[in-house]
Design brief:
By secondary structure, the chain is α/β, with parallel strands linked by helices. It has one domain: Aldolase class I (TIM Barrel). 31% of the residues lie in helices and 17% in strands. The chain has twelve helices and twelve strands. The strands form two sheets. The chain has a nine-stranded mixed sheet. It is globular. It binds pyridoxal-5'-phosphate (PLP) and iron/sulfur cluster.
Length: 348
């Protein structure tokens, strides 16, 4: 029953630039070519968060002619080469991504998988999902399966449960994770029924995807509380986005707010070299400066790792503001307050 309610809300999403242009009274013409290449979907909840044209919510969900610039990599993380079967990305020995859904509740303009997410004809078939399960079952090194896509939580409860149950019963899989932006864009989807279902598949971790403090709404907080009450450990992955959240004050408010919602900031991702999303990139120095600013100002629990995911499938590497210099056996360490303090190290 409740399954139907959120589906109805999702169906009411805005999916064309002409609808958008009517609503905000602008000329849709320059956006038609963008829409033809990269799909548009904005849920009623997320649409309501827009306060003004061009604000941080708008930038994340409304197409921009800059998306047609050829300035990046179609597959920035080399994922296609790391896919033994279409539904699995296997880069690290002990972890694998299981692509269970080709669509999302809303489309983020900066998405790393914008080459395929939401594109008609690229959704995975049941046969491909079965192949994915078979690959994971036949690969004993895999201990951690990350459900991703697309967004796994746009699947119907019955489909999601079937997939979770099949992976859960593989003896070498020790934990499962779900990556989802649904608590941000479609919080109604986190129903009581869903949390009862998920609770059966512990240990289960969920990583949400909040990027801006204005996304921390009361319905989003209620969705996270429901998941946390089901014993699910919640983390958050934020993407550092130019003009959206590339200010220390914005991320400070976001990370503090997440902690209050029982969500632990996990990663701050440096923006990938995605084709069609170059306008969201910042210099790495911006991210490092923000991390330096946050250290000492917020609870250590509110501090994510700032990571860069290297092109060609080379993986994630944490970037840390450099605070250590050496003079002989003496280390000179810069404190959060900016003071240099000497520390007598042992000879190596
Ligand atoms: C990010 C990622 C993971 C998960 O990495 P963690 O650091 O364990 O969160 C796994 N596989 C791929 C391909 C990834 O990009
Ligand atoms: S929810 Fe995730 S997968 Fe979907 S468009 Fe946004 S970033 Fe991409």
């Amino acid at each position: 029953m409740a399954d139907q309610a959120w589906r109805r809300v999702l169906k009411d999403s805005l999916t064309s630039v002409t609808q958008l242009a009517d609503l905000f009274d602008f000329d849709p013409q320059p956006l038609l070519a963008v829409e033809a290449q990269y799909p548009l979907k904005i849920t009623p909840h997320y649409l309501n968060l827009i306060e003004t044209v061009g604000d941080p919510i708008w930038k994340q969900c409304v197409p921009d002619p800059l998306e047609l610039t050829h300035d990046g990599l179609i597959d920035p993380l080399g994922e296609e080469n790391l896919s033994p079967v279409p539904a699995v990305i296997h880069r690290y020995p002990d972890r694998a991504i299981f692509l269970v859904s080709g669509s999302c509740a809303g489309y983020c303009r900066f998405c790393t998988r914008k080459r395929k997410v939401g594109c008609p004809g690229l959704a995975l078939s049941f046969k491909e999902l079965r192949q994915g399960i078979d690959y994971i079952a036949a690969t004993p090194q895999i201990r951690d399966v990350i459900f991703s896509g697309g967004d796994p939580l746009v699947l119907a409860d019955s489909v999601l449960e079937d997939l979770l149950a099949r992976i859960h019963q593989i003896p070498h899989v020790e934990v499962m994770r779900i990556g989802t932006r649904v608590p941000v864009t479609l919080p109604q989807r986190i129903t009581e029924e869903l949390s009862v279902l998920l609770k059966k598949y512990h240990p289960l971790y969920i990583n949400t995807h909040f990027n801006h403090p204005r996304e921390l709404t009361a319905p989003a907080a209620a969705a996270c509380a429901r998941l946390a009450d089901a014993g699910i450990v919640l983390g958050n992955q934020t993407v550092l986005l130019r003009g959206v959240n590339d200010q220390p004050q914005v991320l400070l408010e976001l990370f503090r707010g997440l902690l209050k919602m029982r969500v632990r900031p996990y990663y701050l991702h440096h923006m990938d070299l995605v084709q069609g999303a170059g306008h969201f990139r910042t210099p790495v120095s911006v991210g490092l400066k923000i991390m330096y600013h946050l250290r000492g100002r917020v609870s250590g629990l509110a501090l994510p790792y700032y990571v860069i995911d290297l092109p060609g499938g080379k993986g994630k590497v944490p970037l840390v503001p450099n605070s250590v210099r050496r003079r002989g056996d003496t280390l000179i360490i810069r404190t959060a307050a900016g003071e240099d303090v000497e520390y007598p190290d042992l000879p190596a």
